[in-house]
Every structure is written in structure tokens, then in C-alpha cells.
Amino acid sequence: MNLTGKRRIAFASYVDENYLPGFLNLLRSLALTNPGICEDFIVLYDDLQPSSLTAIRKLHPRIVARPVVPSHYDEFVKGDPENYLVRKAYFILDVFRIRDYDTIITLDTDMVVLGDLSELMELRHGFAAVPQFHHQQTKLNSGLLVIQREFLTDEFAAIVDETGRSGKYELDKHDQGILNALLENEFIRLDAKYNYVKRRAQGDDPLPDDIAILHFTGRHKPWNGGESGYAVAEAAWHRYRMNHAQFITEFLALKGERHPDLLIHFGKDLVARGGDTDALCDVAQAYLDKGRYEEAVRLLTRSRLPAQRSRPHELLGIALAATSRYDEAEARLLLATAEAGTSSRVFGRLAEMSWVRGDDEAAHAYALQGLGSDSVVDRKCRIMYKRTSGSPAPSGQAPVPGDQLAHVAFYMDRQGNAGDKILPESVRQCFGPETGPARWHSQHAHRMLTEEALREINRRRGLVIGGGGLFIPDTMPNGNSAWQWNVPDDLLKRIDVPLAVFAVGYNAFDGQSYTRTRFTESLKLLAAKSSFFGLRNHGSVDKVRELLPAELRDRVVFQPCPTTVSRHIVPGWQDPVRRAETVLLNCAYDRAGLRFGYDYDQFVEQMAQAVLALGDHAEVRYAAHALDDERFVHDLRRVYGISLPVEPMYDWDTDQLRAGYANTRLVIGMRGHAGMVPFGVGTPIISLISHPKMAYFLQDIGRPEWGVSVHDRRLGELLTEKAVGLIRDNEAAIADVHRLQEPLWEVTRENAAKLNALFAA
What we know:
Elements: E1 9-14, H1 20-33, E2 40-45, H2 50-58, E3 63-67, H3 84-88, E4 103-107, E5 111-113, H4 118-122, E6 127-131, E7 140-148, H5 154-166, H6 174-183, E8 188-189, E9 196-197, E10 213-215, H7 231-238, H8 244-252, H9 260-272, H10 277-289, H11 293-301, H12 310-322, H13 326-336, H14 343-356, H15 360-371, H16 379-387, E11 405-409, H17 418-429, E12 440-444, H18 451-458, E13 463-465, E14 468-471, H19 489-493, E15 499-506, H20 516-529, E16 532-535, H21 538-547, H22 550-553, E17 556-558, H23 566-569, E18 582-585, H24 592-596, H25 600-614, E19 619-624, H26 631-640, E20 646-648, H27 654-662, E21 666-669, H28 673-680, E22 685-689, H29 692-700, E23 707-709, H30 715-728, H31 730-760
Parallel strand pairs: 1-2, 1-4, 2-3, 6-8, 9-10, 11-12, 11-13, 13-15, 14-15, 15-16, 16-17, 18-19, 18-21, 19-20, 21-22, 22-23
Antiparallel strand pairs: 4-7, 5-10, 6-7
Helix pairs in contact: 5-6, 8-9, 9-10, 10-11, 10-12, 11-12, 12-13, 13-14, 14-15, 14-16, 15-16, 25-30
């Protein structure tokens, strides 16, 4: 189920044995001219041999082979029903029976891609094609179609079939005739550069520079000898006719963005046989980008890495650290410090890894080396230097371990994500007003649980793990658990105090995956060890239960994020008497590719409409949870000339954050805690959904209408409509939030009471 509304995009072609050479060339040209694009490619076929499908799969990592049923088209009225080519011309119409995608781009197999297709990927509306050459620009050429989901329906497929069986179309135009008869010229007209037919290119004149797709219409195909008079056009086709080794070498030599799936697919075998170092590094980086750390280690360790090149050693060090092979990682990273231009960054990694291992002294020393290097100072060096500089011991009596609870959490540094800063305190407030060291012993989730750390935990009354999205694979990857708490199995088994997982979230984005075996085994052990296992939304509950054996599934229960009930747990909380005439807006930019896909420009355009419209009802201000969040403000001003005042919440403490969100009429947020924190202090919210957790929360409170997908084609209109309603009837909306909090607070209060009793026993 796609909760975020992120578009599923695919290419599609009908391929048979006769047109296979053209299709293989099409795939090569697509990869070499658009190396940043890698979507599913649907191959419709009826007679392809297994060896042909193997050749196709060598040229694309995401081939989806779908056999057609030729007999389905037997009843279609055809101009020449005995003609082999005429019969097969209809098989591409099977695309209208596909239901797995929101946008499908069809390409004829006699095409070659010469330019950028990103504009096609961004199309959101209707049925798009290039008008047919020589037909007064009124009919479409079906060689390229961009089909949106409103046409990928049973109803439209039935009309296609009905038209084909009736014969009420230009019979000599086959599939194209049917579509022109149905659409009656009502289609989005694309520039001719996206389906530049061969007939436009007759003679020896050079092709226009902006051609994106060249189409070899007609009987004579380039792979069968071509046609006299089209030497220039056919030379463009033959440019991509090469053997597989040549193709891979050329792809790996490309500069700029290349999709990690393509890099891995084309590069892994070549570099393993001794490809050049740059290609090796690019493929290794792709493995890291995909979270495939073990494969990155295998790739790099079976290759000879030149001692004088820093990048391969740095990448291997990163991969080894992500699999918790820290001694080997340190050795590789030390080799990588030799290059002056990047040494500060590498020292930052060494400092962080030493801190993860519990060695603050080494972390401090590495951070200091990074700060003193002659390269640009790395931010991580600054953070680790401050983190390990120590702080004055608190005055007064030292905490008594037997009076404390241990708390594993993600403790955010200054200028880190504002939502993460508030989480540890909010969890502690569920168990009582004292949130400091007298009651709590802190264990950072990213620090590996060592023997010493285990002894300290076992000296406490119990252990609380939470809150936040700790079940996420990539913030600080490790090979011990494959989630955010870096805990080896053997030490987890030896925790002998009551253990509670409290308000943790399963935080994988659409398209993300875990190191499944390691994560599942760690999760199973954690569930078996826990006295309480509470996840912060029912979506997370369902996801985690699926990963556990039947006997452990019932242990997983619902425990809302404590930030959603702040009004009930913050000591002395008072609701504001009056709220400012403002709306706070937040956007998120971590993992932007996973959030926006190809729709970012459309998102900014729609948001610009909403910001202007909402300005008539309240002052719109921008709530930046992290430094990167400010990109939206820059893009809005750069593209549309709209300026927003910024609230730098990443610099605020927790009291400021709650007060800031309580003192506004509405919050429109993309980050999870740009929804949950304002909700918790009684403020109405609208969620810009780019992550499943946003939808999960709105489902839990029974208000899915308070969300709108960042991919929605009517985002600006819908957002304005929802926001204006909540602003105009603000008192009722606030009262509604208060009511919706009550069941969350009831669950939290009951769970906390049971755990307090358990920890006191």
C-alpha cells in the first residue's frame, strides 16, 4: 500500500525477436544519455526466447517481463489481419491492462534516446504524445506515449477493446488508429524532439541538437541495413550499437549523476575483474547509498587498492564501520587521511567511530587532528570535539544507580534536528517530572554497548529504549543490530534488569530496506527480552509483527509518541490564552530523493500557490527543524520571489520549541515531529506526507483528512482549502485536537503506570 502517494513510474515496450536488436540499442542509449534514471521497464512479449530475456536483463536492472495473450486481439478488426507486423502492432495496448504504476512511458523498439527525458518523468496530467508528422499536428504518433493513471483503468481498457472490435478507426494505423479515435485530438502535445521521426531527418544535414528521441519509422530499420538517404540519422542509432564490455566501460566513464542501481548492475562484474579505481569507487559508493554495506566490503576487499589514493580506503573504512568491523575500518581510514583535501572529513569519521566504540579520548584526539588539518574543517570534527571535551561534574550528591532508570535514546547535538532533541525528555516525562541525572542514566543509542556500558545498565532499576524512529537502517548503520541501537546479541542477552521498548517507530521510507536477516534476528531477541514492547503508531506495530515469529507478535503493542501528549506530561503546562495570527510551515530535505522522486519542482510550484493564498488569512512563517530544511525558503525565493521569515528551531531548546508551536494557529509540517509536537501542545496540524509515518499518525487519531501527499497534483488547492478551514474555525479545531489527545494520553498513562510498578519491584 502506497501511503505517501509517491508516483510509481515505468517505461514499457512491446518486444519480439525481430525487433530485439532495436530494443537492446534503445536500452543502451537510455542508460548512456539518462544515467540518473532507473525505473521499472516493462517488456511486453509473446515469443521471446529465454536467451533474449537474459540479454535484455543484462542491460537494465529492473526489467519486468509480462507476456501478452495474442488471442485477446484476434477479434480486433484489422486492415490486413494476415500480416505478421499488423497483428503484433496491437500488443502494446496491453499497457492499458497494467495497474501497478501511476505513470507509464511507452517507447517503440525502433527508437534511440539521444537526450534528457527528465521532463517526461515530471509530467503529471493526462495523456501525452507528439503530434504526428505530416498530419497538421492534430493526431498523435503512438511511438512515445506518457500515460497517467486515469487512463490505466479497466474502463479505458474496455473502451480500447470495444473500439478495436468495432473497427471504427483508421485500420491502417493499427494501435495508433485506435488511440486517435478514442482521444479525438484531446491529448497533451509534446515537443517533436521527444518523437523525432526519421522522415524529418532526410539528407546529410546534421540532426538538431535538442533531439531527445529519434524514431526510425517505416519498413527499413537500422539493424537490418537501413535506408538510403538517412545516413546521418542512422549514424546516431549506430552510435549505441556496441558490445557489452564497451557499453559498460562507457557507462562507468560517464561523469555526473548515475543511478546507484545502474552503477551496481553494470559495474560490479567489471570492477571485480580489475576495472579502474574511479569506477571501483563509484560502484562501491552506490552500494553504500543503497545500504548494501557487506557487498561494498566484498567488492573493495577483493580489489587491489592503490595506497596513494584516499577515496577507495575511505569508502572501505565506511563500509567496514557500517558492518561493525571497527579495527579494520580504522586502519583503512588512517590510510585515507594522507590526502590533504579530504583529511578533515576522514578524521571526522575516525572521531565518530572511536566515540561509537566508547573511546572518548581517541575520538577527541582525532577530532582535534581534523580541526588542525589544512583542508576545509569538517562539521563532524567540530561536533565530536565538543561532544568529547567533557563537562563540569554536576554539583551536589552523585546519583545513586539504584534510584535511576537507564535510557537508550538518540541524544541530538546542538543545531541538530529539533524533533529529535525533544524526544528523550518527552519519554522521561511519561514516568514522572524528574528528567535529569538524579533519575536517569543516559546511553546514546549510537554508542556500541560495551561490557562497561552493560554493567552500568545492570546497576539501574530498569532500561527504557525510546523514543523516535530507532528502527531505521541508515542514520548510523552498524552490523551488530542493523538498527539504531548498536547492541551486540551476546550483550543484549545479558541485560538482567526489566527492559521496555517505549514509543519507538519503524521509520523506513518507501523504497528503503534493512539488512533483513541481521535486523530480524536482533529484533526477535529484543522482543523476547522485553517486558514491554510499545511502538508509536499502528503502522509500525503491523510492520514489526510481520517480522516476528508468531509466539512474539502479541508482545508488540501501541504506545503513542510522548510528544503527542505534551499537554499532559509537561510539569505546570498551561495552554496559551491567545495565539499569534500565524501559520508555521515546515519541509524536510533528508533523503530528498526518497521523499520527492521526480516531483520536487511541482511540489515547490504548488506550495508557492498555497503560501500566497494563505497569506490572505495569516502570516506564514517557516519552521526549520534542521539547517537543511531552509532549502525550501531559498528555492521559494529563487524561483517565485516569495520570502518567508524563518524560525530557526534547530537552535531552540525544548521549552522554546513547545512554546513556539503552541503560539500559532496552524502547523503545516513534513517532518514527523513537525506534526506530533504541535499536536501535543494542542495546535491543529496538516501533514505534508512524504513518509509513511505521517499517514500512520493521522490514521491513529482518525484524521486522515489532515494530510496531503507532497505528490498530489492538486497539492496547492487542497492544502489551501484544508488550512483555511482550520484557521477560520480555529477554536473548534483546537478543541478537536484536545479531544483526540485523550485516548493517546489514556494509553500512555496506563503503560507508564505499569512500567513504573515494574521498575519499582
